[in-house]
# Entry
Amino acid sequence: MMPLALLAASLVTGCDRQTPAEAQPPSAQAPSAASAEAPGSFNGTLDIANRGAAMPDFTFTDPSGAKLRTLDLKGKPVLINLWATWCGPCVLEMPTLDALAASHADKLKVVTISQDIDQAEAVGAFFKDRKLTHLAPWLDPENAMSQHYNTEMLPTSVLYDANGREVWRMIGSHDWSGPRTDAMLADTLH
# Structure
């Protein structure tokens, strides 16, 4: 059993991807305390180690079966966010991603890709219940994108420029509606 302090730390900093899929709680049991945390609990880390890497070629679906190919996103900067309904920090930052998608719709495409396994219905309900109207519920039930990025932390967000080249990664939760975001996007969205 995980000590209470360690559990609390994982809710604030990020969700560990080393947990086997079978141990993931159903989305209905997603930690609700994390979504009520103060904005000061955002503490993602900016990582530029993969700057210049090409966008991978993956295809995702939404709960209705529509498809999205990552390489089709070239031509406009794109922020790809990996998240899950059971991940407290992911739930916490999702409204700020929706706000970012709304405020930068003309210059930036925000793509959220769920790492929930066999939870298409839960992901669709999550978006509907939270009225996330500027994002689409893309699904990655095989966690291919998470494996590609070799990330063990959710949420993970990766910014690509208009040519499909990685600019930076944000590992952990971030307030996408805060002033730091504008500074981080300035060079890419010019």
In short: Helices lie at 4-13, 88-103, 120-129, 144-149, 179-189. Residues 49 and 155 are 17 Å apart (CA to CA).
